[in-house]
Specification:
Layout lengths: L1 H12 L3 H17 L7 H36 L6 H13 L11 H31 L11 H24 L9 H51 L6
Helix pairs in contact: 2-3, 2-7, 4-5, 6-7
């Protein structure tokens, strides 16, 4: 029996695994690109393979990185890690969603997850985006602060344009009541004209973001084409 296993291991070790990997990756890539001709079974098969592999990898990582270490800590010292039992219970309660009779138990961990997630999102948006962006827009506009001269003037002008652009973008979302006559009319025209500039800044920003997204996808396409023509077919020297 042992000799048979050894022979099998030697036979597997002699297989050209690198070549097989290249062929497998190439066939899967072609399977994904087959969607360009319309939805088909090959594309669906590749989709299922990707989802299955990703799910299996996530389960293995979650077991070895999260569940197993904490379970070992709880078993070794229940008094010190008693709160792990609560977390394990909440995790098991999520599985009750598959059983209609006790599916209400799954609402408890879901409420906990959504509550904590919402709080983290709000705090992250304020502390990680709103406050830093507000602080970054409060910059000195005096050339002397940047050393004076033409360089100082350039930096001061750049800071002024950033501040004006930030204000214009905020004024575009100004939704207060607008009067048509008197001082209110002047303010309304001022907000409208400056807000229009903010609208164009937003359009330019979205255009730049879209261009970055497209260029990233084109880079991925070029990488796959180089893999197919070089590593797989050997037409470009690898």
């Amino acid at each position: 029996m042992g000799s048979s296993l050894e022979l099998l291991q030697e036979a597997l070790a002699q297989l050209p695994w690198e070549t097989l990997g290249v062929w497998l990756a190439a066939l899967l890539t072609l399977g994904v690109y087959s969607y360009l001709a319309g939805s088909n079974r090959l594309y669906s098969l590749v989709q299922h393979i990707f989802v299955g592999v990703a799910t299996g990898y996530a389960v293995v990582v979650a077991w070895h990185s999260l569940f197993a270490p904490r379970l070992a800590q709880f078993i070794s010292s229940p008094g010190s890690y008693w709160y792990y039992l609560l977390f394990f219970g909440l995790g098991l309660a999520l599985l009750s969603r598959a059983f209609p009779g006790v599916s209400w138990l799954g609402s408890i961990p879901l409420a906990y997850l959504f509550g904590i997630g919402s709080a983290l999102c709000v705090v992250g948006a304020i502390a990680g985006t709103l406050v830093p962006q507000t602080t970054a827009s409060m910059i000195p506009l005096l050339p002397a602060h940047y050393g004076g001269g033409k360089v100082g003037m350039a930096y001061a002008l750049d800071g002024a344009l950033v501040s004006l652009g930030a204000v214009a973008t905020l004024l575009y979302f100004y939704l207060g009541a607008r009067r048509k006559t008197g001082v209110g009319g002047v303010w309304s025209k001022f907000v409208g004209s400056w807000g229009s500039a903010g609208r164009w800044l937003i359009v330019i920003l979205f255009g730049a973001m879209f261009a970055g997204l497209v260029s990233g996808r084109v880079a991925l396409l070029i990488g796959r084409m180089r893999f197919l023509l070089g590593d797989w077919l050997g037409l470009t020297g690898g």
